[in-house]
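Continuing the batch. This is chain 6 of the set; chains 1 through 5 are on the previous pages. Same settings as before, nothing changed between runs. Recording input and output for traceability.
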Amino acid sequence: VAETDAYEFVSWTGCTPLQEAPRRAVVSNVTAAGSCVATYRLRTYRVEGIADTGGTVGSATVNPGTCAGNVCTVGHGGAVSFTAAPQTGYVLNGWSGACTPSAQNPLLASWTGVTQPGTCTASFRRSLVTVTAVPSIRVGQVAASLGGVTCDGASCMNVPSGSSVQLSATIYPYSGRFTSWTCTDGTTSVAATINLVANAPLTTCTANFTSFVPVSATSNNTNAGTASVLLGSGGGTCVSTATCYVDLNSTVTLRATPSSAQYVFRGWAASSANVTCPVANPASATTTLLASASAGCLAQFGTLDIAPD
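Output for chain 6:
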């Protein structure tokens, strides 16, 4: 018997194949009518879907034939298709091999008219993402860099996913203080400089700042006594014992100290017409002040009045 492109010989029924030539058969000692039947089957081919780093490939359809995972046995002239599944942070880069990608769905690729073994390979690449840093208020500045190169506008655009983007926050002198980073991907940190692994398509990180207001305390007579500002529970920085820059709406303590027994504290007042001094107790040498705005306080000292004998 002769084979064709599509079919291959399998076996004989009703006669004996020759050992040296299985596609030939003989009938010995013929004593009655009979038949020799040659059985053929459709040729099949192994077609495998292959994925490189960044994803997987699985079979979608085959006709005629069968599939086990990403490996299919396809009948001669049949069709097979595979689907690509990118992992998180990757996108499909393209198909190669025997398959042709679908115009409607690039993740799907097929091979029709299969007449030989073959492979369909999906390649993947890192997806491109954007990381942007912004300040919560304008008392400091932020920067973003990739590989030591500063990104324009504190925004690193079209960065391969999985890259490490460095974010930094700096404060303007005496304007406020940095408290934390909060990012839309869930990242948080109290460090002013962080390295963010960029995976989300768009990540915005906010540098949270607290603004400062100046609070000062002066004496109406430096020979009579001194005035000082003490930081409270909020943050701040002092340039001297009498002048501090403190968290907006924080509470600080003011203290007036006479220089000797001949002087006494007479009360607190605003140090000029341009500022206020909203202390809790103007008559107390040690009192608190809510820093809701700039404040300038004057500690008023006088001499101790001694009655004559």
